[in-house]
Every structure is written in C-alpha cells, then in structure tokens.
Amino acid sequence: MSDTKNDTLTQDSSDPTPQTAPPALDPRLLVREAGFKGYVSEFQRKVRGGELGSLPVIGGLIIIWIVFGLQNSKFIQPANIGEISFFLAATGMAALGLIFVLILGEIDLSVLSVSGLSAAVFGWLAVIHGINAWLAVLLSIGSGIAIGALQGFFFAKVGVPAFVVTLAGNLGWFGVMLWLLGSGSVGGSITLNDAGFMHDLGQNSYFMGGDIAGGYILAGLAVAAMLVSSLLDQKRRRAAGVPFRPTVEIGLRTGVLAVVAFAAAYELNQASGVPTALVLFLAALVICDFVLRRTSYGRKIFAVGGSIEAARRAGISVPAIRISVFAISGGFGALSGLFYAGWSFSAQESAGQGAWLMLAIAAAVIGGTSLFGGRGKAWSALLGMLVIQSITTGLQLLGLQSDVEYMITAVVLLAAVVIDSLSRRTQKASGRG
Amino acid sequence: MTSAPVLALRGVSKRFGAVQALTDVDLEVNSGEVVALVGDNGAGKSTLVKTIAGVHPIDEGAIEWEGKQVSINRPQDAQHLGVATVYQDLALCDNLDVVGNLYLGRELRRFGTLDEVTMEQKARELLSTLSIRIPSVRIPIAGLSGGQRQVVAIARALIGEPKVVILDEPTAALGVEQTAQVLDLVERLRERGLGVILISHNMADVKAVADTVAVLRLGRNNGVFPARETTHEDIIAAITGATDNAVTRREARTAEAAK
User: Is the ipTM of this complex over 0.85?
Assistant: First the structure.
C-alpha cells in the first residue's frame, strides 16, 4: 500500500528557487496532471521497471480460483472459502515472522521446529503439569522468542551465517520437541482440551460466536479506519504543503477495500462466520504492518536490509536489530505452532515435520517480499497464503494425493522466486535496484 | 564570524604501529570558508579527516573548537560538536526513499510514530534552499543518478545542523554536469556560513571553489595557500615536494613538443 502511495505522490508542486536551467522533466512528475492517462502511463512504467507489486499475486489468485472453480464447483462455495480462511491463519503467522527476517535479507529455517516445539511446550506445561493455560501460552510464545534471540545472537554477534544457525536450530529444536513428547507416559502426542485459547484457535470458534453481524462489523471497522486515516493524512499533508492524495483516489481505494471486505464477510457468513483464528491473524497482520511502516524500529529494519554500512553510520545498532528480528520470527513461529495445535487439539511429533516451512517462505515471497532483502510488506503474508491455501484446498477437493501436492507446491515456490529474481534484474537494468 | 577559527588543529600527530601517519600537522577552518585538503596518495588526508571525525583519536597535539580545546575520541563526539562527514562511499540505503535516508537514525516522531509529513516538508525545504533538484523526495535512492546521490548525502549531513562539513572526494565518480552541481552545492554551504573541508584530487575543482588550499605531504604540512593567488603548478609542486617530478617533466615535454 505504501509503495503505491510513495510512487504516485510525485508531483513537485513548487520550487521557490529560480534556476537558469529549465527543470528536468521527469515523467514521474506528471502523473497527476495527466489525469487518468497519467495513471495508465505510470502503471506501464512500473511494469517495465520491474515494480510489479501485488499484480502477479492477484492475477495468479484469480486464475487459481477460476481453474479450481471449473474443476469442482464446491471450490467457490462458502464452506470451502471458510476452510481456506481458517487454515491460512496458522502458516500465515509463521510467514508474518519470516517477512521481518526476509526484509533483513536473511532467512530463518528453524520456524518449523520452533512451532512444533512451542505446541509441545504448551501441552507439556498445561496438560501434564497442569499450569494455567494462559500462562502456558505466554511461556510457549516466550520460548519461541528466546530461541529466536539465541539464534540471532549466534548470527549477529558470533557471525555464523543465518541459514546455518537456523538449520542447526531446526534439527536441535525438533530433537527437544521429540524429547518433550517422548518423556514418560506421553507416547508421542499430547491431547489438548478444547477450551480457552485453544478453543479460540480451533475450527469451532467464530468471531462473536458466528453472529452474522460479526463479519460486517469487522468489514465496516476496516473500511472506516482506512477512510478516516486517509482523510486525516490528506488534511495534514495539504496543511503542510506537501503532495497529497486527491479525494477521488481515496474514495476509489476505500471503495475497493469495502467491496473486498464486505464480499468476504458475506461469503464467510454464508458458512459459519469469521473464524477467530483468521481474526487473530488479521490483527497480527495490521500490527506488523504498522510496526514496519510507521515506526522508527520498522524503518531501521528496512535500513539494515538495504545497506548495513549506511545503517551503522546512521547510528543504528545492527546487532540489536538482527537479534530482535530473529526473536520476532521465533515468536511468530511459536504462535503458528499454537494455531496448529489449536486446530488438531493435540501436540504431536508430526507437527515438526512436513513441507509447510517452505509454504511459509513461499507465501512471503509470492506475496511480494523479496528474498534479497530491503523490500517487503506485512500484507504479503495474507496474499501469499491465500494463493497457497487455495492450491492446497483445491487439490484436496480434487482428491489428489500428497505426491502431486508436493510437486505443485515446489513449482509454485520456484515460480515465486523466479519472479522475484527477474523483477530484481529488471529493476537493476532500469537503474532502480 | 568570530575571530577564532571554528575548528583548528595544532601540532596533531598520529601513529599506527610503526607508521607515523601524521606529524605535527596544523589546520584551520573558519566559518564560511572552504578549505581544500590536497596531497598525494598516502599523504595523510584521510587520516587527518578521520581524526577530526572521531574515527581515530589523535596521539599528540590539540584540537580547538571555536577557540576552546576539545577532545574527540568517538564519532559521536565529533557529531555533538557539529562536525558532519560525507564519506566517499556515501552510505545511503538504496531501498529507502530520499526522506527516509535524510532522516535515517534521527526520525521525527509524532505520538511515537514516524512523522512522515513533517519530515517530507522539512526535506523539501532543505533541498530547495540548497537548490537541489531531484525528481521527488519520495523515490528510492536506487532511482537517482550518482550526482543526485552525492547531493542527497551532503544534504543528509546538514540535517544535524553542523558547523563544519567534511567532504571526502565528492566529485571523484561524477561526470562534468554533476560535478558542477556538487561544486555549486559546496558554494551554497559556504554561503550558509559553514566551514567546509574538501578533499580532492582534482585541481580544477579545488581552484574553482576553495578559499584556502592546505597541502599535506608525507604526513606533514607542506604549505597553506590562498587558492585565488596560487597557480596550479605551485600546488602541484607542494604536493609532490619538488619542482622536478613526473608532472613537471611531462609538462615540459608537452610544451617542447608543442613547439
């Protein structure tokens, strides 16, 4: 969202100092003046320059829905949409944490084991040792944060490449999880009670108890928040004499959001309501987006991802940023583990295995976060997970076995990375990378 | 302008192990003055600049700031005094926009969040008072030319309102037009009453904007010249340490060939 804003707010309204040389005309300056045509040419320029933004994802998503919808009419029915929106939350949480790491230009391969371990820690504390469930939730998220910080320490202070540290972590924490689940009478898995936070994360929990109003209230809140904040921003910018978004554009953007939000709310209400897990995921998404775009901490993460030397010279403590970002990734990994435990009501050995680490990374990259660092946004977790979960659910509806699923997932991941690399190359070629 | 120079080095020496990098060097910078620091490779220009910027603390001698003796041991000390340094490699973040780079590490905040509007407003003001022309303050640095990046880096040094600006070879990698833009900017810094230390290998640039030329040779002072009244050859002679050297021999040869 911020990207488009930054790129289109480019008219230079006034330049008080007279210059003898005529001002260099930059096509970017004329976006607004040229009206609709200006937006079209700006769009063409961006595509040529490799700034594809969210376009490939949205295009891909539409194609996926059309293909699966034609194959099996169940795919676009509310029940299936509800399922997609529930199951994307768990992996989406992990993707959200990974986005922070990817913006640094690093990678965290330990997320899978950390999430399995956090579910095991929760079960071990809450079920076997009878500790208060909320305290156990906090402790298991805390364990993820501590693990992330430890890995971040080895990377930032000792100087071990991040992928080796986290790969070692992936093995090590998986071992710890097996040890926790294999100890004593547990025998490989712990069954969790369908109560409290675990119930909220489960498949039977909906926002406001599945009330029809719940979805519309959420959609209305989102639209109102966007409208009010855009108008306030416009007012401040106008008062300060810097370029601002015209009211028509604000109206259009809010309109698009309103259509999408209310359509989603309507569809989900046709099923059982908005899953609580999805609401929690969206809340985390909004918070992360805010942190990345609106706080100086977020700015520092982008700075370190862009140029370590520049960040250091600007007085940013690079090791502190790196350690904290890995801690964030660990924390979200742990949260995603709790989401998984919530949907299966158990902590089990298989939680630390499987392909979904790759899915989380793929989601971030598909959504538009670069593997090369310095570029990314929190929303890519949602967009990317929509694509991936649609494919997964669609394949299951078609009754395809996991062999096909693995192969298709691999192709999607590869395609996302290829698009990322190509768009980076195009940006370099047009002097913008 | 006060009578005492804003920055003065008195008898500064610096050793790295067995290497005597600087010996008894003096340097004075006044407000509104451009001092060009010239010398051959290894003459100690960079070391001298780094002692002022706080990267290398001095071994002997004194640094005076507005007439008072100060000690500069860390880069932060220099920043607090009001010394801003623009290094040759610029150190800008390609992925951040111009405003983000100008305010990196000292973002303005409002209710704890980034105050983008005020930052953008002030960035535009600063850039327009310096007559810096860039397409927009909201495009990423990656979209700017080399000269535009250089002026953004210099403008960035001015955000902290320094009194002395050190420019390390600002025109080294630039074309003719861009060099002229940077030199214009150096003159505007002088008009704002800043002391400027300009490191350059390019004598044309030095003659164009400097008021004073301080020559270093083998870690020692080798003369301070008023730029207007000194010829190119005199400066070269001071840099190389003799009138008989590769440069003069070559000039003599070409002069002969011209006849």
Answer: no
Residue A22 has pLDDT above 50, yes or no: no
User: How many residues does the structure list for chain A?
Assistant: 433
- Chain B residues at the A interface, defined by Cβ less than 8 Å, are 76, 87, 89-97, 100-101, 104-107, 109, 112-114, 117-118, 120-121, 124, 128-129, 131, 133, 135-136, 138-140, 142-143
pLDDT in tens, A395-421: 888 888 778 878 887 888 888 888 888
CA–CA separation, B181 and B165 (whole Å): 17
The 3-state secondary structure of A278-306 reads HHHHHHHHHHHHHHHHHCHHHHHHHHHHH
Sequence-distant (6+) residues with CB within 8 A of A278 are A85, A86, A88, A89
Q: Which residue of A has its CA nearest to B99?
A: A6
Token match 């929760």: residue?
A122
Say which of A10, A26, A311 has its CB closest to residue B138: A10
Q: Which one of B98, B133, B191 would you mutate to disrupt binding with A, by most A Cβ within 10 Å of its Cβ?
A: B133
List of domains in chain A: 55-205+275-429 (1.10.3470)
Which two structure tokens, joined as six digits, stand for A171?
A: 């093995």
Is pLDDT of A6 > 50? no
Closest Cβ–Cβ partner in B87, B96, B139 for A306? B96
CA distance B220 to B23: 5
Compute the distance between CA of residue A215 and CA of residue B248 in angstroms, rounded to an integer. Answer: 84
Chain A environment of B101 (Cβ under 8 Å):
310
pLDDT value of position A14: 40
What is the pLDDT, as a whole number, of residue A315? 83
As a whole number of angstroms, the distance between CA A281 and CA B89 comes to: 42
Length of chain B: 259
Region of residue B67 (left: phi > 0; alpha: psi -120 to 50; beta: else): left
CA atoms within 13 A on the CB side of A24: 9
- DSSP string computed for A161-224: -HHHHHHHHHHHHHHHHHHHHHSTT-TTEEEPPS-HHHHHHSTT-BGGGG-HHHHHHHHHHHHH
CA distance A17 to A28: 21
Q: Render pLDDT for B33-66 as a digit per residue (tens, 0 to 9).
A: 999 999 888 888 888 988 898 888 889 999 999 9
Q: Taking CB atoms and an 8 Å limit, are A19 and B124 in contact across chains?
A: no
Per residue in A133-177, pLDDT tens? 899 999 999 999 999 999 999 999 999 999 999 999 999 999 999
CATH class of B7-82+162-258: alpha beta
pLDDT above 60: residue A433: no
Q: Considering the entire predicted model, what is its pTM? A: 0.85
> For A19, which of B94, B121, B131 is closest by C-beta distance?
B131
Of the two residues A366 and A4, the one the predictor is more confident about is A366
Percent helix, percent strand, percent coil in chain A, to nearest 5: 75, 0, 25
Residues of B in contact with A237 (CB under 8 A): 117
- DSSP symbol at A73: G
